[in-house]
Amino acid sequence: MEEGGGGPLGLLCRVGWPAKPALSRGGQNPRGEKLCGHRRAPDWRAETKPAVPTSARSPSPPQDFILMADSKPAVDGEPMDMEALLQSVFGIVIDEAIQKGTSASEKVCEWKEPEELKQLLDLELQSQGESQEQILERCRAVIRYSVKTGHPRFFNQLFSGLDPHALAGRIITESLNTSQYTYEIAPVFVLMEEEVLKKLRALVGWSSGDGVFCPGGSVSNMYAMNLARYQRYPDCKQRGLRALPPLALFTSKECHYSINKGAAFLGLGTDSVRVVKADERGKMIPEDLERQIFQAEAEGSVPFLVSATSGTTVLGAFDPLDAIADVCQRHGLWFHVDAAWGGSVLLSQMHRHLLDGIQRADSVAWNPHKLLAAGLQCSALLLRDTSNLLKRCHGSQASYLFQQDKFYDVALDTGDKVLGGGNKETGRV
């Protein structure tokens, strides 16, 4: 790493080992940062420790070792004023992204063709850092040439708007910059997620169950496919595809493309996706679903999952969930509902009838970042299961992380339910 080097949107730190890094007796370092109260790391640097024979001492850290708590970004060797920088950035965000970005008198986007935009932004990574003024100007440029999804005339996607409460939550979560695999690293967010998932399940109609937040509805759908396969063939976790017969899953021709992507990603193959006919309004036809199930069985495949859609991408259709649930019950199939867009109508007394039968599903994908204006990505996968299926399917029991002898309920260590180790606290924004 070169001293002072960095890209156009960032800075590289140039710091040395602090002269007096010892911790005080009050649980603070020399800068006053408090330590987490439940566990204190061994203070091998403290000056108050009794003398230790030279041969038994830990080696001194190298001179270029960076202790993050004692370092600050620098340009040309001079420490930056972090508070001043952030205040300037927040000022730009409020002026450009929030006030102008949500004003009907402003453009939705200052559109430029790709080559022209590259020249305007000068995105080539450099070996030297930039001044604070240059960084702030780049921040303005990023906002100026980006699409303002909070604009009242932004209609390009199934999400839009800028909710100030959602933005405030995202600022807090980003400033805390934590993952969420264990309670000890994210105690507040773990408890918040538990309550939010509980409420979402109650809206679906379940008094118990499980769930996780995922990085988007596509991943939620893929999780559901993986869980359905594991429930039917648990040996596949260890033995892989060789433990499986040819499988078949069923979905409408109006389904989200993530179903086909999931089949490819999970090794099932896109040929395993049986496309069920839809009526003129885009809703799955249950009679054709059952016909397709019988046909798959006759061809030697084993049906294992049906994915219905509540709020299709193009037509906004809601599949007849009760009738589809009847078919799934007759054939013993996992019933998944992709309600990424339409799930939020459960909050509407006028429209919630569109989801009649959703309580009979085994799993539901729901994206509050769509109709509820939560920040991207706020995507929930809800399960009716109470047998810890998520952890059994996805868990690896990493002993260095998920210790069983902690001083709190280790059921709160939810990281083994998901595939990502750096799972973000997306459900609170």
Automatic annotation (TrEMBL):
Gene3D superfamilies: 3.90.1150.170, Type I PLP-dependent aspartate aminotransferase-like (Major domain). One of its GO terms (biological process) is taurine biosynthetic process. Residues 22-64 are annotated as: Disordered. Its cofactor is pyridoxal 5'-phosphate. The modification N6-(pyridoxal phosphate)lysine is found at K370. Pfam families: Pyridoxal_deC. GO terms for molecular function: pyridoxal phosphate binding; sulfinoalanine decarboxylase activity. InterPro entries: PyrdxlP-dep_de-COase, PyrdxlP-dep_Trfase, PyrdxlP-dep_Trfase_major, Pyridoxal-P_BS. Residues 31-48 have a biased composition (Basic and acidic residues). Keywords: Decarboxylase, Lyase, Pyridoxal phosphate. One of its GO terms (cellular component) is cytoplasm. Homodimer. Belongs to the group II decarboxylase family. This is Cysteine sulfinic acid decarboxylase isoform X3. It comes from Dipodomys ordii.
